[in-house]
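Reopening this one. Same input as before:
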Amino acid sequence: MKLVILTGMSGAGKSTALKMMEDIGFYCVDNLPIPLIEKFVELSETSKEELQKFAVGIDIRSGNSFSELEEVLNRLDESGQAPEILFLDAEDAVLVKRYKETRRNHPLSGGRRVESGIVMEREKLAHLRKRADYIIDTSRLLTRDLRAELEKIFVRQQDYKNLFITILSFGFKYGIPADSDLVFDVRFLPNPYYVDGLRTKSGNDKEVQDYVLQFEEAHLFLNKLEDMLNFLIPKYITEGKNQLVVGIGCTGGKHRSVTLANELFKRLSVKSEFGLQIEHRDIDKDALRK
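Same output, byte for byte:
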C-alpha cells in the first residue's frame, strides 16, 4: 500500500492537487481528522478492494488536533507504514494575491490581515515542511505544470529533487524581473530588430532563430551558461532551494532573449531531476504599444 499525505500552505493548490492525484489512480480523502489517520491506514490495509494508492489531504483546518500529526507520523514510521509527504508551497505575495482574488479569508487570520494568517501558518507547518519528501512551489505553476510535476513523481516515479526552474526572457526597457535569481544580458549580440523582415517577428520564429544563432558568440554564451547551471543546480538542490528563475534579457524581450531562452530550455529539458518551464514576459509588448 502507498500512502501520501498531501499538505502545505492554504492557497497553494492542495484541493487542485488532490483532484489530480485522483485522476492518476489514488483514492483521495480530504481533511481527514488527524486522530483517524492510523485507523484509515489500518482499514485500507485490510480492505478487500484492489485499491493500492491512497492520498490524504491534511491542512491547518484540522485545528487543535494538527499538533498531533507529528506523533501520528512517528508511530506510522515505527510500524513500517511510513507515508510519503507532499508539501505544496507558494510565496507569501502570491498567496495574498490568491486570497484577494477569491475574496476568501485565511483560516488563521480571523479578523486580521491575510498576511498575519500566512505568518502563523508557516510557523505551524515548519516541522512538516522540513519532513516532506516532496516540496512543490506553485507560485509560478500553471495547472498543467502542477499536473506534470505530480505525474513525474507518482506515475513515472522519477528521482525528484524539489527544484522547479523557470527560464524567463524579458526586455530591459520594461525592467528586470523582480523575482529573477540569475540575470543574463544578451544585448552583446547583433539585434534582429534592425534587419529587414525580422522586426515584426520574434525569437519563436525560425528566421530570427537562424539570424541570432549564426553568431559564434551565441553558442559560446549558451555553452558557458549551461555549464554554470549544471554546476549550480545540484548546489541549489542541496541547499533546499525550491524555485530558480533564470532571466535572459535583451532590449525589448522579443528577439535575442527569446531565442536564447528557447535554446537553453531545450538543453535543460534533457535533465529529468527537476521541473522546468519557459516564459517570455515581454514578447508581445512592442505590438501592444503600437
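So the earlier flakiness isn't reproducible anymore. For the record, The chain has two domains: 2-154, 164-289.
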